Amino acid sequence: MTKNTDKDLGDIDFDHLDSDSQYPLDEVFGGASSSHSQADEHGSTKKSIKNPRENPEEIESPLNLEEKKFFFFPTWRSQLLNLIWFHVSGIGAIWVSREMPQYFILPGKLFSTESTEYVLYLPLLIFVPAFFLVKVLINIYNSVYCFDNSGIEAHIGLVSFNLRQPRLRWEDIRGVEPSQNIWERMLSIGTVKVGSAMSQETEIIMTGVSSPREIQELINSERAKRLKELKQSGTGARHGAVTGD
Questions:
Q1: 100 by DSSP, 3-state: which?
Q2: Cα dihedral angle (145, 148, 150, 154), rounded to 10 degrees?
Q3: What does the alpha-carbon distance between residue 34 and residue 51 come to, in Å, rounded to a whole number?
Q4: Hey, what domains does the chain have and what are their CATH numbers?
Q5: What is the pTM of this model?
Q6: pLDDT score for 138
Q7: Going by fewer Cβ within 10 Å, which terminus of the chain is more open, N or C?
Q8: Are 166 and 157 in contact (CB under 8 A)?
Q9: How wide is the angle at C-alpha 55 spanned by C-alphas 230 and 233, nearest 5°?
Q10: Are 152 and 204 in contact (CB under 8 A)?
């Protein structure tokens, strides 16, 4: 039975990684790493993780994808500008509506009784902050990116009319390119572009994700592992001609 994990890479403190544990994701994702157990001096058991950079000939995946799926979502930090505009426009809409109600508040009669008339007042400027709030929610929940045993799959358009679900096998990935502007570097977010070796185009674009450089390292490590397995099985020569490796 497949176990889903939806931890955010932003929860990982990459600045304080142990030198012997390049990918300590077992504690973050609940065992999702290539690791083995060893006992410490008190007899308790802890996990140590091989560093794939120590021996390039023994590349292991930092993700144990045999029984798990990992989901990456756009972070709320990626919508910080829209959230600021939401609060600013909301305060502005309230102030303008109170100062000039005759222009920006639309009255409408609901019903009346013998002695009372019920009227609904609609502030027209409420649609301005509502626009930014809806934009934030769509950008956050419209996309999800899944890593599993076979490759990467993107679900783009979950709350839109058009739904795209591109998928790439690990061995078909041509390259991974993270990109960040100065604002995104300050917030530790960015975009990760995953290219396909079959079409020579960018197949999957992960926008607004946390720690894009770490995601690049995860993908490259898993891809290197799969290419090594292909070469050992005798099919790597043909595939290397396609990927250029």
A1: coil
A2: -10
A3: 10
A4: 80-135 (no CATH), 149-243 (2.30.29)
A5: 0.64
A6: 94
A7: N
A8: no
A9: 15
A10: yes
